[in-house]
Amino acid sequence: MQIISSHIQQAGPPLHIVLDWISSISHRNALCAFLAGDYFIARYAANFFAKKLLPHWDEVEHALASIDDVPRLCLCCWREFRSVHIEDEQHVVLDCCMLDHERADMTAELHPFTLMRLASCDASTRLQTLMQSNLESDWNALARFLARARQKRRRFKIACQALSTELDRQNYALRAAEWRAG
User: Fold this and answer.
1) Which of 6, 44, 62, 109 is the most exposed place for a label (fewest CB within 10 A)?
2) How much is the pTM?
3) Given CA atoms 3, 4, 10, 16 in this order, what sign does their dihedral have?
4) C-alpha to C-alpha distances, 2 to 55, 85, 141, nearest whole angstrom
5) CA–CA distance, 6 with 21 (Å, rounded to integer)
6) What is the pLDDT of residues 127-180, one digit of tens each?
7) Alpha-carbon span 37 to 138, nearest angstrom
8) CA distance 41 to 18
């Protein structure tokens, strides 16, 4: 909910106008889901669907403020590159390695003025800067990106759930064998 409240408080077009600009229903739905916090972002969901895939504290303590941040790591960045990033909205839209191709497509569709504003702002405010755009084409590019990101993240979540379940099953089989042997 933080993303929608920050949008409402910032300059930029009202949400009802932005939603009118986006003609594709699936893109509009993806933007609404993103603004409403329905993306299973680890900052809020704590990777509940794949706890077994999270790193141990000793593997990431050098990069995190506390052990409470471990469930908030971006699983994709950790599994693919062993890089430690807290997964929040800004990370998903602007930094996550899983969405590099989709992000490149979105960037190619953004207006040059918007790209210039993004390049000149602080990294922590880039998402807010993007969401302050008054250009219909920028919002359509963002919504298209979010629709593609939502599909890709959903597939990744399902794969992580399956892998976590398999790890649980293997762990149980090992414990059962130990109990029988003991």
Assistant:
1) 62
2) 0.85
3) positive
4) 27, 19, 22
5) 20
6) 999 999 999 999 999 999 999 999 999 999 999 999 988 888 887 776 767 777
7) 21
8) 23
